[in-house]
Amino acid sequence: MSQDVNRITEREALLLHSSGRPGKLEVTATKPLATQRDLSLAYSPGVAYPCLRIAENEDSAYDYTAKSNTVAVITNGTAVLGLGNLGALASKPVMEGKAVLFKRFADIDGIDLELATEDVDRFCDAVELMAPTFGGINLEDIKAPESFIIEERLRERCDIPVMHDDQHGTAIIAAAGLVNALQITGRSLADIRMVVNGAGAAAIATLSLLKSMGMPNENAVMCDSRGVIYRGRTDGMNQWKSIHAVETDLRTLEEAMDGADVFFGLSVKDAITQDMVASMAPQPIIFAMANPDPEIKPELVHEVRDDAIMATGRSDYPNQVNNVLGFPYIFRGALDVRARAINDEMKIAAVNALAELAREDVPDEVGEAYGRKLKFGRDYLIPAPFDPRLIVSVPQAVAKAAMETGVARRPIIDMDAYTEELKGRLDPTYDRLQRVYDRARGKGQRVVFAEGEDPRAIRAALALKNGDLGRPILVGRQEDIEATLSDMGIDPSMLEIRNAGQRREDNPELVDMLYARLNRKGYLRRDCQRLIHQDRNVYAASMVASGQADAMVTGLTRAFGSCFEDVLKVVDHAENQRIMTHAMFIRRGQTVFLADTSVAENPDGRALADIAIQTANTARSLGFEPRVALLSYSNFGQPERHATRDVRDAVLELERRRVDFEFDGEMQVNVALDYDLIKSTYPFCRLTGPANVLVMPSLHAANISQKLLTEFADGTVIGPVLQGLNHAVQITSMNAKVSDVLNAAVFAAIEGARK
Questions:
Q1: Are 8 and 61 part of one and the same domain?
Q2: What is the pLDDT of residues 143-179, one digit of tens each?
Q3: What is the distance in angstroms between the CA of the first residue and the CA of the last residue of the chain?
Q4: Which segments within 68-135 are labelled E, that is strand?
Q5: 721 bridge partner residues
């Protein structure tokens, strides 16, 4: 990883962690607290009753408290990522991140705890004393060998699941990948010869798990920095290494690699060479899992072995060994049966579930998210992290294993009902937004930021580039942009910069193109020349229209209407499309599309129907089945006013066009979003659930609604998203944050790829 990338990552990461409310977590109430009665039930005197029940039966804490869905993420900061012993407090961002992943992937509430001690006894005592609070304990970033001692003691002393993810998470994912690699190459654990390089927590746990799955002890050779771990060696040994010592004459990693079927690397970058790879057995399986840089890069392996199967810990290569495939779902299954422990049988169940899922036919939407067809084979051994089926397959397998081995407090009786419960655990919105980003990733679309001197545009451009979401081009005064980049600690050469006034070699072509469009609208050639040289929106739009770029973003320094007028000087509406905007309001469990928020001032019935159709198509493209409500201040003619005529006409127009989605109106917004109210009061309504597409009657209503949601609602608003032009253009709001600009750039890049 280059120094520049490190600086960029640092700058962006610090901004993310410090912006708004610092950190990545907050506590939210799960019960209403709006009235005095609510308060009396939730706290005094009502809270006394669950306290008494728990005193009578401690297991009832799972019924009356958050214990059943809470995992403690605990560390002492002695092995933080690859950074070493940073101490307890410095590890807190990592532990918060782990808690976020628990929530994101398995709907588990993770509570981070950083213990300021390196004393094993004090650490274990502290965790044991806190254990009644939690349903499970995830140990993290604790150095070996202390991590082995701590986990072993806590498993003995606590009656809830305890797992050191650095050990077992990696082991489970790697084992699943190996199971599938062996199937592809026609081998089994019982007949392979394996080399493991590294003797830390992850390596030892991985080898131990494979042996519990059937690998003979003598078939695996473990190496550390001193070479092969063999019987009789005393230098650098401990009891955990000794377990994996074998009777062998091999002494070096190079010797061990000769003729090996499998290599597992959990060590350091560049630990193995091409010569070592060349010496391996036919169809070698190489899992180079050192992070951020593997023991050997896949391209170097394939230069000498075209029959090799490769996996790494990185997302930019196939077969990523990513712990997020394991720990959220393992704890999900353990919590749901109120397990007393996570045993080997539960780990093996997770291994098999992951391996089996990778062999199943991958849904098209998952493949689309990753920009390629995913099919079981050499480049797809392990499920993709954003595969929505993980939340069902892995927890079910873990829960069943817990029940079969007797560690479950509450066995699951109805597995079909449990399946539906698991499906409902996750908010699909986050998955779909990730898929939006993944559609842009790797396409290389050239995105012009018309206001390139604005720091928000610069940071968004950097994020676009670093995420491989597009190739940014900043329009503005080069010296000013370079100065801003230098102040941020970033090499100015990282980004392409264009100054319209200084790029005379490009401008004649653009001037000619613009003059051909505007000469019959009262514009002289010199007017067009002035626009190209002095108006950044016109210049950026002309770059897109001429093919010098694929998409553009603007709106940070001028109002939407002004930017829109500039853009229309250069681009036209797309065929059979209405120019409009929509916004997405996103909160847990709910995504709603609002339209038209920025363009159509007083749309008639036909225009409203067009808006409804285009927004419904957008919702469907993101994985939502549209239920469209055409909004008004009245409900189905009550009260009937002249102002509602256009909305009623829109309903008739949609009926005439025989659209393939649910719609109805006119209706008030509270009715549209409350399906119980619809069923009880308006049973004739066509909607079969709460509306997720809200078509506003006017620009006033739509724009005000979007801005109110942006300022006050408990959720995220993305937009406005402009559509209906024949070139990819997005216009942000003037108060847009960096994330808003990045979202706009990603939407523009996706649209640019389709043009």
A1: yes
A2: 988 999 999 999 999 999 999 988 898 999 999 999 9
A3: 34
A4: 70-75, 109-114
A5: 582
Q: Could you tell me how far CA 678 lies from the centroid of its own chain?
A: 35
- Together in a domain, 544 and 609: no
Question: pLDDT band at residue 244, thresholds of 50, 70 and 90?
Answer: very high
Question: What is the pairing mode between strands 716-723 and 580-587?
Answer: antiparallel
Write out the two tokens for 64: 């009356």
Across 54-76, average pLDDT? 94
Per the CB < 8 A criterion, the answer to whether 337 and 409 are in contact is yes
Q: Residue 3: pLDDT above 70?
A: no
8 Å CB contact between 507 and 532: yes
In the predicted structure, residue 1 carries a pLDDT above the cut 60 = no
In angstroms, what CA-CA distances link 422 with 136, 140, 356, 419, 748? Answer: 18, 26, 18, 5, 34
Residue of 161, 25, 158, 147 lying closest to 80 (CA atoms): 147
Domain of 46, in residue numbers:
3-164
How far is Cα 523 from Cα 525, in angstroms, rounded to an integer?
7
679 among known catalytic residues = no
**Residue 278, amino acid:** A
**Does 740 reside within a domain?**
no
Whether residue 389 lies inside any domain: the answer is yes
Strand partners, 642: none
- Sheet of strand 262-265, all strands in order from the earlier edge strand to the far edge: 227-228, 220-224, 194-197, 262-265, 285-288, 309-312
Specify the pairing of strand 471-475 against strand 496-498.
parallel
Whether pLDDT at 5 is above 50: no
> Which domain-ending residue is among 102, 135, 164?
164
pLDDT, tens digit, for every residue of 14-47? 777 777 678 777 777 777 777 888 888 888 888 8
Tally of structural domains, the chain: 5
What pLDDT band is residue 90 in, cutting at 50, 70 and 90?
A: very high
Residue 662, H or E segment: strand 662-667
**pTM exceeds 0.90 for this model:** no
Q: Which of 98, 241, 400, 465 is catalytic?
A: 98
- Domain shared by 552 and 585, yes or no: no
d(CA 434, CA 413): 34
Active site residue 43: yes
Asked if 518 and 553 sit in the same domain, the reply is yes
On whether residue 274 sits in a domain, the answer given is: yes
CA–CA separation, 617 vs 614, rounded Å?
A: 5
Q: Are 472 and 502 in contact (CB under 8 A)?
A: no
State which of 317, 343, 371 marks the end of a domain.
Answer: 317
